[in-house]
Amino acid sequence: MTTPDTTPGLRLTVLVGESDTWHHRPVCTEIVHRAHAAGLAGASVFRGIEGFGASSMIHTQRLLSLSEDLPVAVVIVDTEERIRAFLPLITELTAGPVTLDACEIVRSAPDPGERP
Question: Among 48, 109, 101, 107, which residue's Cα sits nearest to residue 77?
Answer without folding.
Answer: 101
